[in-house]
Amino acid sequence: MLAALCTVFAMLLLTSTADAQLRRGGIAGGVRLEARTDVRWSGAPDVQGMLGGALPLDRAVRLAFLAGAGVERNHTGNHASITGEVHARVLLDPLAARDYGWYAVAGMGYRAAESHSPRAYLVMLGGVEGPRILGGRARLAMEAGVGDGVRLGIVLRAARPGAR
Hints:
- This protein is mainly beta.
- The protein is built from one helix and eight strands.
- The protein has an eight-stranded antiparallel beta barrel with strand order 1-2-3-4-5-6-7-8.
């Protein structure tokens, strides 16, 4: 529940920051904020909320750095956990020629929880990013794949002017 509330707060903060960037004419090559919530299944379901930013490496590749926290469940109960991830996102429609744009993600992550020793893992995701929302300031995306278990995610990203 705390992870979901933190994510909602982050989404509100993200949209106000995106609005400020849009008023300044946008920073097409700059870091764009993103907030995400992931549900993961690795034995038992857990929820992670993460905040971070994505930097364009070229027209179709974004490098994202994310950090967050959440709740992990196992046979002994609920345990707090922290997560850090680095993603390389390859866009199949980088110039936003269509409302919906598919992409692939590969990356690495690190997670520590009260119930187990820290661990590193690989991330492989596929996702689709929707049209601009919140007055053109953000885009909502959905992802599915593997990374510390099977996972589904919802992502809110600050929109880039004239691109994804």
